[in-house]
Structure formats: C-alpha cells, structure tokens
Structure to design on (148 residues):
C-alpha cells in the first residue's frame, strides 16, 4: 500500500474543531472518503493529476506492447480507476487508494534502470491526492458536520 499524508493546515484545524465539538469525526471522514473516491475516479476520465496537470501520453514502447493504441494512460481496461476505494480507520483517519500492485508505479513512476522488469521508463501519473477543489469540498463537508 502507498502511504502519504496530505499536510493541509486548514483541513487539520477544521478536523480538530469537529473532534472537539462532537468527539466523533468518523461520519465526516466517511463522507470525505466517498467524495475523494469519486474525485479520484474522475481523474481517469480527464487524465489529470490532483494538481491539474495532464498525464504524459504513453510512449512508443508502450504502444508496441498494446493492441489498443489509444494513447490514454492508465485506462486500458479500467481496472486501476475502478478499484479506487476508501478505508476508514475508525475515528482516527482515512485512506484512499487501490489494491492493484502496480498502483504505486503509476502514481510515482519509475525507470527501467531502477526496475529491470519494466519494458521502459514509466513517468509518474499521479491520481491520488487532494486538488484545490477537493480541499474546498473537504472543508465544506466538515463545516456541514459542525453545523449539526
């Protein structure tokens, strides 16, 4: 499993406020998980990372290995995008990801010199992460839970 933390002071501050008010942030985390899962899946439709940058097209080496020469990375069979899900860790946290073994390679990229089993260098094509729009929606979700 790939793990990285999103360091967003505004979101952390809002979650602490919710924790102090309700003692239970898991309902908000569940809603955030649902929202982030859908947001992440949409990246496979727009071919963009959470930073808004489009993914690099497939290389000629990749084209030569594929029957479908569509040039659209990470979308051949839809498996990676269709396996995005969230996992709630009680009142403690939330993870968004995919169980596919190659997910980390697609997220971070890698070179043939680092990983000799690759057919060529693979550029990073980030699909996990919090976009600016995601951060706004997360704060809105927390705000709605604070208003209950």
């Amino acid at each position: 499993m790939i793990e990285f933390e999103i360091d967003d002071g505004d979101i952390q501050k809002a979650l602490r406020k919710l924790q102090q008010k309700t003692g239970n942030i898991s309902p908000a985390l569940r809603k955030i998980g649902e929202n982030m899962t859908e947001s992440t899946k949409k990246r496979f439709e727009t071919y963009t990372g959470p930073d808004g940058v489009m993914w690099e097209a497939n290389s000629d080496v990749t084209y030569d290995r594929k029957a479908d020469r569509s040039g659209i990375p990470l979308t051949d069979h839809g498996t990676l995008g269709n396996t995005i899900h969230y996992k709630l860790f009680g009142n403690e946290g939330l993870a968004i990801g995919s169980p596919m073994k190659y997910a980390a390679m697609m997220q971070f990229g890698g070179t043939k010199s680092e990983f000799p089993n690759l057919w060529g260098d693979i550029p990073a094509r980030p699909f996990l992460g919090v976009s600016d729009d995601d951060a706004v929606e997360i704060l809105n979700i927390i705000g709605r839970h604070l208003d209950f």
